[in-house]
Amino acid sequence: MILKGKTALVTGSTSGIGLGIACKLAEAGANVMLNGFGDVDAAMARVSAFGTRVLHHPADMADAEQIGELIGQTERDFGSLDVLVNNAGIQHVAPVERFPVERWNSIIAINLSSVFHTMRLALPGMRERNWGRIINISSVHGLVASTQKAAYVAAKHGVIGLTKTVALETATTGITCNALCPGWVLTPLVQQQIDSKAKAHGDPMRATRELLMEKQPSLDFVTPEELGELAVFLCSDAGRQVRGAAWNVDGGWLAQ
Ligand code: NAD
């Protein structure tokens, strides 16, 4: 229970990776502020099962004002914000010359600018207590590119740069800031990409295998729970000097 008495905010935690991380932080004793759309009740039930206090805030991470309300509400309801996991993210796949401008703007806002806003607002409280853990969910696409993902790749590279800057600005404090860079994790975000591949040849199993074979040598998905375990490690005392890392968890994707 290394996080007993601490509060974690996980953005985009009603589904996929965010929900997996929220569960592991709650299991480690943290009270949790959830955020995101969709089936909020199911997410609340899963995270509450670990017996800590769990709330949900519906802020749209594309909106700086709503992000301000989310951080303020978390600090008021729980008394502090100690672990910040920036996870909310969306994807759109299209070649750059046909990339819809409004999709570019939303991806940059949700996947990159929201990370700036939550950190700038959460850091003063963390500095007062001289303790904090910031974990930004980037991607292997923060370190290498793939075709058709211009906005996503740009945003995820940006998250790693931003992570390093904040890690340096907090280097002599009890606050650490790191990025996790997952390869393929089977969540609704990736299922969409499998479904559109399957449309091409009508076989979801083959589409899944092709997706993995193209990039991920383990031919197996990373799980949200594995990422959650790593988040808990970064929150531990042993993670104290891990600063500004972009830690890939990718079945060997980046080893190629
Ligand atoms: P997901 O679609 O399962 O979950 C996304 C979450 O973000 C949901 O809770 C959703 O409600 C929330 N969300 C979306 N737009 C939002 C907004 N405007 N405001 C607030 N919440 C919003 O996706 P996932 O695969 O779990 O992805 C989570 C993060 O992990 C993303 O940042 C994604 O880029 C990153 N990632 C995913 C993979 C993967 O293979 N799935 C790999 C690397 C990185």
How would you describe what is shown here?
- The protein has eight helices and seven strands; from the N terminus they run E-H-E-H-E-H-E-H-E-H-E-H-H-H-E.
- With about 260 residues, it is of the alpha/beta class.
- The chain has a single domain (about 5-185, about 220-255), classed as 3-Layer(aba) Sandwich (Rossmann fold).
- It has a seven-stranded parallel β-sheet, sandwiched between helices.
- Helix 3 (about 65-80) packs parallel to helix 4 (about 100-130) and helix 6 crosses helix 7.
- The site of nicotinamide-adenine-dinucleotide (NAD) has 29 residues, from helix 1, helix 4 and helix 6.
Quick overview:
This protein is of the alpha/beta class. It is 48% helix and 14% strand.
Structural class: alpha/beta
The major sheet is characterized as: 7 strands, parallel
Name the shape in a single word: globular
CATH second-level architecture: 3-Layer(aba) Sandwich
Give the low-pLDDT segments.
none
Task: Count the E strands.
Answer: 7
The CATH topology comes to: Rossmann fold
SSE string, helix = H, strand = E? EHEHEHEHEHEHHHE
Q: Quaternary status of these chains?
A: single chain
